[in-house]
Amino acid sequence: MRLRLVLAGLALAAATAGPTTAADNIKIGFITKFPVPFFATMEDAAKAYAAAHPGVEVVFGQGTSATDIEGQIALIESMVTQGVQGIALTPVDPTVASTLDKAIAAGVKVVLMDNNIPDWNGRTALATTDNYNAGKIAGEYLKSVLKSGDTLGILEGVPGVPSLDDRVNGMLEGLQGVDVNIVGRGATNCTEELGINVAQDLLTANPDLKAIYAACGPPAAGAAQAIKNAGIASDAIILVGFDFCCGEKEALEAGIEDATVAQFPAKMAELGVDALVKSIKGEKVESLIDSGAALVTKDNMAEF
User: Rounded to an integer, what distance in angstroms lies between the CA atom of residue 83 and that of residue 57?
Assistant: First the structure.
């Protein structure tokens, strides 16, 4: 009888310490804003995480544009209906918070990636670039190449989106100490097309424009195209971007773009998904997870 009890105890221990069972499987949603390489890289990292962690299933969704609020709300609602235990997402706008509140009320944990939702306390964690400090990196570079009296045009992303506003405000802080004249600011919705249009307007209105700063990768590539279309020599104007994506590599190689700030989207996604999985398992996670940023120029771009 004693032997039988010992064997039964060993069997129970093996069952509880063994590999993940179907009951232990974790199903999460992964939502990104819109189709650009930055978010494709994040998706690939989430897929790699799932492949390396048996028992983790990831359901993917993506909006159509940087302003597709209704699309993201529909994706959140759909994933809750599909029975996910957690959602990792790059929020397109703070107004999705009310939909996330409903998800949390249904028992779903939420990890934000890339940007925060101000004054919203529902998130378990935020995995992101410190966009303000990353913006300062761009501003400090501009400070090193500009002088007082020079003119600067700014291609904003989506005004009102905190992470994109931080990239501009951080840049302005990094630029402090040089009295630069800001001659124009325009929203681009982080698209190349609007980047071209806003940059063309800036160049037309300011023939002696000395520098352009773009808060997203696609508008930076658009500004490079606008500079090329205008027949302006690459050494006659300074162009600084943000994201190191979506045509910026080619602009750097051509010498039209002088520098950009690289984020690490794969690391951001991996850290975000890992925090979400751990929180679902009941493990403690940090509320703020910084995935880092770095200045990229033609000289060091091979490192990125």
Answer: 11
